[in-house]
Amino acid sequence: MSGRLRMQKEEDGAAEQTPRQAPPLTKPAVPSYQPAGKEMENEISRDSELYSQSAVRRRSRKFRSRLAYCLCALSTVIAMVPLVLILFYVIYQGAGDLNLSFLTSLPKPVGESGGGMGNAIAGSLILIGIAAVIGVPLGVLAGTQLAEYRNPRLSCVVRLLSDILSGVPSIIVGIFVYTLLVLTFKQFSAIAGGVALGILMLPTVARTTEEMMRMVPDTLREASLALGIPRWRTITSVIIKTAGGGIMTGVMLATARIAGETAPLLFTALGSRTWPTGLDKPIASLPVQIYQFAISPFDEWHRQAWAGSLVLVLIVLFLSIGSKIFFGRKMKRAS
């Protein structure tokens, strides 16, 4: 046993003294270089096809965009052509007879040259003022109720009535006011004419006010209410001031509509050939006097009708420009 153990130890020692041989080194398999084949060609062709398709789509989008822009510009020009033609034709026909005497004198009897429409100009301004006093506050309050308080039932009723009233012919409104005021007080008057025009203003002012106030960001309302400001003060001081430009635009649109109305004034204000003497009496107006002069067989009155038409257009134009300038300055001071 001792001899075997001695021989095994000697073998183990000899094995430890011999160094271990490392495994033979082998070259890693390097993939051989292969030139681009069909797969590379397919990828290149696919990329070029995608690029060409994107270029075609890009050119198509640009073409559609330019086409839409051209159509919009053409539509704008077509819409502006009638207005420009009417304006230039009225200026061409009425500028020759428009002078200071025409603006300050009364109409002359048939057969006499000269005269003017001073009484009709003053009467139209009075009627527009009465209509604005009636129609603008009521219209703004109705629009405020629709936009801010949003009572579903009441808002639905008010909006429906406003839409119906905007489509009612003006002569129907004139007959209604004639039955309500003229027959009751047995007299044509400026008040009756102003009430008829004020009713015609209501739907335009109300719906414009509603739309403009809805466009005011809710963050302004929330910021004002968070500071402890009452809701009514938030509406009057923040929302109406912010939407004031759009509201004034609606008021001017309503004024432009009623400034040329003739039918309701024939039933309410009737007309006069003298200066206005009171709100409870018949009063002259430009639309009625233009109508009477236009249907007459006298050339002198026809020329004065064109001059009166030009004055009516200028009144609406000056009111619009003046309100824009005035309100623009107030908005700058407020900001």
From the alpha carbons, calculate the radius of gyration and give it in angstroms: 42 Å
Helix content: over 70%
Supply the number of helical segments. 13
Question: CATH superfamily, called what?
Answer: MetI-like
Count of beta strands = 0
Mean pLDDT across all residues, rounded?
83
Under CATH at level 1, the class stands as Mainly Alpha
> Mind summarizing the main beta sheet?
none
**Strand fraction:** under 5%
Q: Which architecture does the CATH hierarchy give at level 2? A: Orthogonal Bundle
Ranges where pLDDT stays below 50 over 5 or more residues in a row are none
| SSE ordering | HHHHHHHHHHHHH
Shape, per Cα inertia axes: extended
**Count of individual domains:** 1
Structural class: mainly alpha
Q: Measure the end-to-end span.
A: 114 Å
CATH fold name: MetI-like fold
Can you tell me about this structure?
With 335 residues, the chain is mostly helical. The protein has one domain (96-334): MetI-like fold (Orthogonal Bundle). Helices cover 76% and strands 0% of the residues. It is built from 13 helices and no strands. α6 packs across α7, α7 (190-214) packs antiparallel against α10 and α8 (218-226) runs antiparallel to α9 (231-242). The longest helix is centred in the first third of the chain and has 57 residues, at 38-94. The radius of gyration is 42 Å and the shape is extended. The mean pLDDT is 83.
